[in-house]
Write a structure and sequence with these properties.
Layout: H1 6-13, H2 20-51, H3 54-81, H4 84-108, H5 113-141, H6 147-173, H7 188-211, H8 227-240, H9 242-273, H10 278-305, H11 310-327, H12 334-362, H13 365-380, H14 382-393, H15 399-418, H16 421-424
Helix pairs in contact: 2-3, 2-5, 2-6, 2-7, 3-5, 3-8, 3-13, 4-5, 4-7, 5-13, 6-7, 6-10, 6-12, 8-13, 9-10, 9-13, 9-14, 9-15, 10-12, 11-12, 11-15
């Protein structure tokens, strides 16, 4: 006899955690995101211990970032030709293999820089396919009215891992193992353990993802259509959708005027104006992460308060964010900077979740991988370029001028777009989504 009440059944349908497949994806992704932080801390430390050269670290980071940006669009096309779940399994499996090999060589004391470069390339290539696949799989698992809640939980989890993970990784790397006469790498035991923890997190993620069941998990082959033709079709589809096209163009401006100045300006700010040095930088980044974490869960409230006027909410949020970025010119203490970045993080979290959910609801599933890859390319492709430009500008202009120009330009662009219907008329498809 079925003893469950209709109310209980409705509650399960209106909760993302009533969905077995989303719960599996969320659990595996949470563990994997936490494990990623161990590698993000351990890899730069490993390079500096091997070489003592910051330039080598820059080359390693570029070796990961450039192929990731270059292959992001191809990754989106592959996702649409196969399936998000299968591509995500393959990408995470390749990433796990790279981390396992890295951990083994570090613990054995045989790691060399050419190996680090090769493995960094493998990590960059695998993430180029993992990012669009991870974004495209959600609409296959949850109902449209629950996408905002699902996105908020996934982003909140990632932000929480960025707050907790680096601290745990630091303690792990600092652990000392038994001395070995053949061990020439300082901190080898802790570094190998950190990479091993990330590898274990990938195995957990792969196991949970293998248990996820998606209806229509294989896409019909595109007869006679090559990968690059498929990418071109994705661009044509995006360009024909006027509101979506307007947002993508606008997002590229945000990436240029916010991503670079923040990535380059914050370390310089902490080093030149604050008395805690690297600790100040850590506090600033943590404050921004906490803000993003909070904002991800406030997105639904913000959309309801704006009565579903998503475009106006995004533009107003970015206009205020630009003013806050310009206000960084007045910051001379760690606490003041942390409060300002906490505020901008909240705004960023609200806007990001709202936009991601809108795109996932608007775009057809057969175009989802390519559309999300284009969106991510605007941030991951233009972001490093913006950082390089910002770094070059700091040689000829002051930090105050950098923050002022970037912030006020962003505010000006947002205010101009408020007068254009292509952006300001964007409405949320589900202004009152169910709560998780």
């Amino acid at each position: 006899m079925n003893t469950s009440s209709p109310a209980a059944g409705n509650a399960a349908r209106n909760s993302v955690f009533g969905n077995r497949d989303f719960t599996l994806l969320f659990g595996g992704s949470s563990i994997s995101a936490l494990g990623d932080q161990f590698t993000l801390v351990a890899l730069p430390w490993l390079v500096l211990k091997l070489t003592g050269d910051p330039a080598a670290l820059g080359v390693v980071l570029a070796t990961m970032a450039l192929p990731r940006a270059a292959f992001m669009l191809i990754g989106g096309a592959v996702v649409d030709r196969m399936s998000p779940r299968r591509v995500l399994l393959g990408a995470r499996g390749a990433n796990a293999a790279c981390i396992v090999i890295l951990a083994a060589f570090v613990l054995a004391g045989t790691i060399q820089m050419w190996m680090v470069y090769l493995l960094a390339l493998g990590i960059g290539l695998s993430t180029a396919f993992a990012y669009p696949a991870g974004s495209a799989i959600l609409p296959q698992l949850v109902q449209p009215q629950l996408l905002r809640s699902a996105n908020a939980l996934m982003m909140g989890m990632r932000q929480l891992s960025m707050i907790v993970g680096p601290v745990l990784a630091g303690f792990v790397i600092a652990t000392r193992g038994h001395d070995s006469s053949t061990q020439t790498l300082s901190d080898a035991h802790g570094l190998g353990l950190a990479f091993g923890i990330d590898a274990a997190s990938f195995l957990f993620s792969l196991a949970s993802l293998a248990m996820v069941r998606v209806r229509g998990d294989s896409h019909p082959p595109m007869a006679g259509v090559g990968v690059f033709a498929s990418i071109a079709a994705g661009f044509r589809n995006l360009w024909s959708d006027v509101p979506l096209r307007a947002f993508m163009i606008y997002a590229s401006f945000v990436s240029v005027f916010v991503g670079g100045p923040i990535q380059v300006g914050l370390p310089v700010l902490a080093d030149t104006r604050m008395n805690l040095g690297a600790a100040s930088l850590g506090i600033l980044m943590t404050a921004q992460g906490v803000g993003m974490f909070a904002g991800s869960f406030l997105s639904g409230i913000g959309t309801r308060l704006m009565r579903g006027h998503l475009g106006i909410m995004v533009l107003c949020g970015d206009a205020v964010m630009g003013l806050a970025l310009a206000a960084m010119t007045l910051v001379h203490t760690t606490h003041a900077g942390a409060l300002l970045l906490l505020f901008t993080g909240v705004l960023g979290g609200i806007v990001q979740i709202a936009i991601f959910s809108w795109i996932q609801q608007r775009v057809s599933q057969e175009m989802m991988g390519r559309t999300m890859s284009i969106l991510m390319f605007t941030f991951m492709g233009l972001g490093p370029l913006s950082a390089a430009i910002a770094g070059a500008l700091l040689k000829v202009i002051s930090l105050t001028a950098l923050f002022s120009i970037a912030g006020l330009t962003l505010t000006t662009i947002a205010l101009i777009c408020l007068g254009r219907a292509q952006m300001s008329s964007i409405r949320a498809l589900h202004p009152a989504p169910a709560k998780p």
